[in-house]
Write a structure and sequence with these properties.
The chain is mainly beta. It has a 5-stranded mixed sheet, with no helix packed on it. The protein has a 5-stranded mixed sheet with strand order 24-27-32-29-30, with no helix packed on it. Strand 40 and strand 41 form a beta hairpin. The protein is elongated, with a radius of gyration of 34 Å.
Length: 833
Amino acid sequence: MKRILSFGIIAVILTGVLYACNILGGTETPAPAAVFSGDVTKLDLVVQPQSGTFNAAGQTIAYQFTVTNSGTTALTGPVTVADNKMPTVACMPVNTIGNKDNNLDAAESVTCTSNYTLVQADINSGSVINTSTASAGGVSSDAVNTTVAMALSKVLEVTAIANPTTYNQAGQVITLTYTVKNTGQSVLGPAQFMIIGDRINNLPCGAGDTSLTPNQTFTCTATYTTSDADKAANQVVFNTTINGGGATNTQPLSVTVTNTALGGGGTTTGLTPGTTIQHHVNEGEWMIQIARCYGADFYAVKTANPQVVDANKIWPINILTIPNIGSKGKVYGPPCVTYYTAQNGDTWNSIAQKYNADLAVLMEANKGLNLASGVKLKIPLNSANGNPVPVPTADPTTPIRINIPNGSTTVTPTGTIPASKKVNYILAATQGQSLSLKLTAPAADMQLAVTSVNGGIVLKGQDSNLVWSGNIPATGDYIIAITNVSVSDKAYTLEVGLTTPVPVSFERVADINAGAGDSNPSYLAVHSGVLYFNATGNNSAGAELWKYDATTNSTTMVKDIRPGADGSNPAFLASYKGELYFSANGGDGAGTELWRFNGSDAGRLTDINPTVGDANPAYMTVYNDILYFSANGNDGKGVELWKTDGVTSSRVTDINSGAGDSNPSYLAVYNNALFFSATSNDGTGTELWKFDGTNIGRAADINPGVGNSNPSFLTAVNNTLYFSANGGDGSGMELWKFDGTNATRAADINVGAGDSTPTSLAAFNGVLYFNANGNDGAGLELWKFDGTTASRAADINKTGDSFPSFITVYNSQLHFQANGGDGAGKELWKYKP
């Protein structure tokens, strides 16, 4: 977001127009052609990948692309970025930055973002190299190559072949041939590798000093003799991992050998065809799959369960009646669904055959998922009507439902868990709620975990830390698992707290430019109990003066100051001495000058820059009953600080002496003085300045030396002056504060070198509100700062940036311009904390 600052500085040089450095508004005055000896077209691209450790397929790298017009010629938007790794790169519209026109002007920058998901080939190659090129207005940047190194991984993979693949009696010998492979990038060993499993455990594999180079393999064998218990079961499952050689990542293996002595019909289920049974719904099940599981007629099952509104939406708390089991097929019995983590070499067909699953049903149950190693799949067991292959769940314990009403509530279930067993509690929670857990039990004997019911969200991995708290990321059911890892029964008490935050309210006030068009309400100001602003309706009048009356809940155009489609573009509205003052171009040949509205009509106060010159008055602020502002008086002094008493206007001082522009901007009253951002000619750059009615001087050199801190959007709250600035300390453009003596950074919202770029600061009920990018994935949204902590107040646009701008307090609510992502474009919104 540094584009805001660099644009502002160059805009001063090119146009002498102060408000061009305001990212939120105004109309840029074209620079005289005589400023340049020749036009230059050049586009620069900087690519910044996310930092971190990347060593596994499925990880995501976030990229930020900063595209800057480093030439002197404006380039027509939009800005696009082409990247060989990321087919879609999202760029901010150029009409949301700088002077908000449809051009990428000189020194303006646009930020684009995209994500890249690692595949195994990236891990194997050791790096991701992407090539990016930016374009705008027919001009392209140089290609930029970006390399993200992969952390060297030490990965062991094991596969196995069983011989025979079926059995039919006790005492039958099954030989398993294991193939061990180094799929990482580092040499493993020399070491003794071991097969670890539930049926074959601690089996030495290979010699005691075996070394494995990347992609090298070796084999070993093991035998297993079936037992009487295996004869009575439908299958024997061998769950295996391999370790050794310093491997930090092992890929598990599951091999199933089927008992062919048991015919179709699932005789081990103990269920009698023709009977009606009650089925307790388990994780991931749906009604038609449950009907298949019992060989029952789906429509009969649906009729027998009128309490289920949607057959595809049933939950682990439901109990279904299953009539006349076996009437449509074999009775397999539960479990009806299991989960399987895909391994290298798996295909949809091999998985379907392994679990007696119908291929089409399997693929529909996992719609949208890519079949890749490590992906968790939902398996519709025995849906192919072949030989039964029920897979026991990892934990047969039925979850205990905890019911917590809305609000801040704590429940305390207690119990005793047998040795080496677990108990699962299931809890319905809503996104944004806060969950807290405290398990009172011997820490060495108990472990605690919290996941979503499908395992896709892991809030807390299983470990001996028995206290946890955090926010719920998505609405749904969550499993709280307590595991007794000791050899004796253990008692426990579990405290579960679920807090629902107080709801907030934000809504669009009006769609002034009906449909998808933007009305772009800007420069909001309260005057005589009414909210006035600049807006573009769908009346072909251009940008003119509008108002919103909360009493009648209506928006109307106040005055068509400049008839026709060009519009007068009123800006920097301020209420002063019973009238509304603003900058406007009346189309009368006087250019952009100081205007005022008396409640019935609008007129130009004076021509500060005589004849056709633009004074461009900006940042109007009342101080000591005088209206101060920035302007160019065409007196050879450039853009400096001016004032008016409503009758006469005059320049206050020449901060940047001579023809240079000091560009006083973002004027705000604090501690009985007028503070603002300005550029002097003493080599300190653009910094914080102060005027006490008599004396004027620099208040703080925030970015020491020749660096520019570019303080902007100055706002006073709780006896502190807040603003956006770059302190030159590597934290980027962040929220700063000034206590009358010292300037310090208040918060690093976008942690690290990234810019949160707080804009449109406004004080409300002792809290500072503003627009910022917190790098939390929500984009440019409404934030708040209570003097200690910065947090996002609302995510108005769930699919993009709402970019709340010109935030103003009116009628005990915050009003602002925003894009709510509701198809209405940039319109007038309000928010009540």
